Amino acid sequence: MANHRIDRVGMEIKREVNEILQKKVRDPRVQDVTITDVQMLGDLSAAKVYYTIHSTLASDNQKAQTGLEKATGTIKRELGKNLTMYKIPDLTFVKDESIEYGNKIDQMLRNLNKD
């Protein structure tokens, strides 16, 4: 029963953080950032927020990570306004590598078919 609540809170945080990044955070480093998933701790005290960025440049990825870390306070404050939770979880931003990994596997499969 508790897993449903954790999943619901994670989905709500994902939706809210995407909206906050689009409307409230004015940092140009996070303009192309999209939140892909949120993994909550069992007691809802911490959340890993997975994000992706459209650029593949390492410098852009580093800038996005820095921008997200700087915007964490603003994001938590806005989450506090928008969510009815006793305590807003601590946010940790992690680059989501799954899309790049999927593209790599897809490319390897295409190369197999050519041979």
TrEMBL record:
<dbReference type="InterPro" id="IPR020053">
    <property type="entry name" value="Ribosome-bd_factorA_CS"/>
</dbReference>
<keyword id="KW-0963">Cytoplasm</keyword>
<dbReference type="Pfam" id="PF02033">
    <property type="entry name" value="RBFA"/>
</dbReference>
<protein>
    <recommendedName>
        <fullName>Ribosome-binding factor A</fullName>
    </recommendedName>
</protein>
<dbReference type="InterPro" id="IPR000238">
    <property type="entry name" value="RbfA"/>
</dbReference>
<dbReference type="InterPro" id="IPR015946">
    <property type="entry name" value="KH_dom-like_a/b"/>
</dbReference>
<comment type="function">
    <text>One of several proteins that assist in the late maturation steps of the functional core of the 30S ribosomal subunit. Associates with free 30S ribosomal subunits (but not with 30S subunits that are part of 70S ribosomes or polysomes). Required for efficient processing of 16S rRNA. May interact with the 5'-terminal helix region of 16S rRNA.</text>
</comment>
<comment type="similarity">
    <text>Belongs to the RbfA family.</text>
</comment>
<comment type="subunit">
    <text>Monomer. Binds 30S ribosomal subunits, but not 50S ribosomal subunits or 70S ribosomes.</text>
</comment>
<dbReference type="InterPro" id="IPR023799">
    <property type="entry name" value="RbfA_dom_sf"/>
</dbReference>
<keyword id="KW-0690">Ribosome biogenesis</keyword>
